[in-house]
Design a protein that fits this description.
This protein is mainly alpha-helical and about 120 residues long. It is about 80% helix and about 0% strand.
């Protein structure tokens, strides 16, 4: 594949970044340098690692960066759960973001399996 931008998983993970950047605006101001910053970094890490792994141009490296993307996705899911437990975000906001995280995670996993076959 010529460009990572053509990967649907990269496109969906970019959608997730946009969603998270919108959601963190609802967090309390005291979380600007804490939870909201961590959530933005974790979200951006997902498509960034997909792109970097693709750019390495070896299957082994791509697989490794896909693993890192999965880790960032899990980190983001945990942070969303924290927001829910602390009543920073509403259930429907968190559920929508978690659903997109789940979709992206399945796509990453599917892509990873292509290297294992």
């Amino acid at each position: 594949m010529a460009s990572y931008r053509k990967l649907i998983v990269w496109q969906k993970s970019m959608d997730l970044v946009e969603m998270i950047y919108t959601l963190v605006n609802y967090l309390p101001k005291e979380e600007i340098y804490g939870l909201s910053s961590q959530m933005r970094r974790a979200a951006v890490s997902i498509p960034s690692n997909i792109a970097e792994g693709h750019g390495r141009q070896t299957e082994k490296e791509f697989y490794r960066f896909l693993c890192i993307s999965q880790g960032s996705k899990a980190e983001l899911e945990t942070q969303l759960e924290v927001c829910l437990r602390l009543n920073y975000l509403k259930q429907d906001q968190v559920q929508t973001a978690l659903a997109l995280c789940d979709e992206v995670g399945k796509m990453i996993y599917s892509l990873m399996n292509k290297f294992v076959e």
